Amino acid sequence: MNDKLILTLVEKFDASSIAELDLNDGTSRLVLRKDAAFAHGQAAGVYGPSSISGAAQTGAVSGAASAGGEVPPVHLGLPVLPGSTAVSPTVTGGELITSPIVATFYASSGPDAPPFVKAGSRVKAGASLCILEAMKMMNHLEAEFDCEILSVKAASGDLVEYGQALFEVKRL
Questions:
Q1: Contact status, residue 123 vs residue 155, Cβ threshold 8 Å
Q2: Closest residue by Cα to residue 152 from 130, 134, 128
Q3: Up-side HSE of residue 60: CA atoms within 13 Å toward CB?
Q4: Percent of the chain clearing pLDDT 70 (strictly above)
Q5: Quick one: how many helices (H) and strands (E) in the chain?
Q6: 41: left (phi over 0), alpha (psi -120 to 50) or beta
Q7: How far is CA 127 from the centre of its chain?
């Protein structure tokens, strides 16, 4: 992505009612988020400091992918939210995967379809854990690492909050 395109995207995004935009062209990744969309009901200080490089502040983007083949996100001065599957330790020794957005939780792809995962399921990194519907957009929440599902903390159709625990997992 070139600087002019990025600046145009940022301006259009800022003027729109879109809360989050994640673009990936295979060599560059652009992540834009507005904190107003997530601020309702959230405590102050939920967001960590933005990881903005000098190049990103001026709109320049590095096109290099990381050694693992993943494209690092570029943050342009907007609040940085935890990763799509924020993970934190729990009391039982497992970890919690939390919701990155306020949304409706769906355990399966349809009412008659089996759930993506259930307690005891072993999943590979990149596998869908659930669908989070927000503003008529169906977002697949994917595992960031190989894990075993210890428990599912939400039921299909539940409205989940930002940061709410969805799954307790054990890394494999």
A1: no
A2: 130
A3: 6
A4: 63
A5: 3, 12
A6: left
A7: 14
Residue written as token pair 């994640």: 22
The answer to whether 157 and 105 have CB atoms below 8 angstroms apart is yes
* Residue 27: how many other CB atoms lie within 10 Å: 12
User: Is the CB of residue 108 less than 8 Å from the CB of residue 91?
Assistant: no
Indicate the class that CATH gives domain 87-171.
mainly beta
Residue count of the chain, please give it: 172
45-58 pLDDT, tens per residue?
333 333 333 333 33
Q: Which of 110, 74, 90, 57 is nearest to 166 (CA)?
A: 90
pTM score above 0.70: no
- Give the tokens for residue 100: 């990155």
CA distance 77 to 49: 10
Smallest CA-to-CA distance from 167 within 148, 155, 153 is with 153
The domain locations on the chain are 3-75, 87-171
Q: Which two tokens stand for residue 81?
A: 């939210």
